[in-house]
Amino acid sequence: MSTKAQLIILVSLLLLMRIPKRSEAEFEQWCVADEQTPDDELQAALDWACGKGGANCSKIQVNQPCYLPNTVKDHASYAFNNYYQKFKHKGASCYFNGGAMTIELDPSHSGCHFDFLP
Ligand SMILES: *[C@@H]1O[C@H](CO)[C@@H](O)[C@H](O)[C@H]1NC(C)=O
Fold first, then answer.
1. Other beta carbons within 10 Å of 40
2. Ligand 1 in contact with 108 (CB < 6 A)?
3. How confident is the model over 79-105, as pLDDT tens digits?
């Protein structure tokens, strides 16, 4: 094997070894409502999340930082994410009958913070 080939293999191995480390640190996911899901389905999932689901929905109540925009989709996104972050380590999934999806972009907006728990 030539020195150049050995070098290429060595560099490739080094790059491969870096990947798990990097993605572990950067693999942050939030759970939000899927835009394609009808509002009535999102509303039902939102009610469940804030009720039996155990999400803390205090921030989407009137006059709280995540009340606006006051849409079913935005409120469902907040509730889904709160539920998911709170219970993902206990096996909860970001599903909500197909009404939710994970994203890797922080959905927080002016004053409304979407938790991410490592
Ligand atoms: C819900 O969140 C609010 C604001 O972050 C906090 O003050 C409150 O104690 C929480 N309620 C529960 C039941 O965890």
1. 9
2. no
3. 999 999 999 999 999 999 999 999 999
